[in-house]
Specification:
The chain is 49% helix and 14% strand. The chain is built from 4 helices and 3 strands; from the N terminus they run ααβαβαβ. A 3-stranded parallel beta sheet has the order 1-2-3.
Length: 84
């Protein structure tokens, strides 16, 4: 089983980095109705995708993750919007 606390530092790069994060966020955002105002990103990991959700005007985003190291990285990207 993958230890996400151990992997947090290199996780983004090992999963395609910014290009993959952009594609993933675009795909999810395309599924949301225009009236969506709140989004909960469960298992947000490092927040690399989550921060792109938060850039959509009018969308309030909360990220949640179980791994402390992932949560710390996500919280640095989205201060006040990530919980463990």
């Amino acid at each position: 089983m993958l230890d996400y606390d151990e992997e947090a530092e290199r996780y983004d790069a090992s999963r395609g980095g910014e290009p993959r994060a952009g594609a993933a966020a675009d795909a999810v955002l395309a599924l949301l109705p225009d009236t969506t105002r709140d989004l909960l990103d469960v298992a947000c990991g490092t927040g690399i995708v989550t921060r792109r959700f938060a850039a959509r005007p009018g969308l309030r985003v909360t990220g949640v993750d179980l791994a402390p190291a992932m949560t710390r990285r996500a919280a640095a990207r989205l201060p006040g919007a990530v919980v463990r």
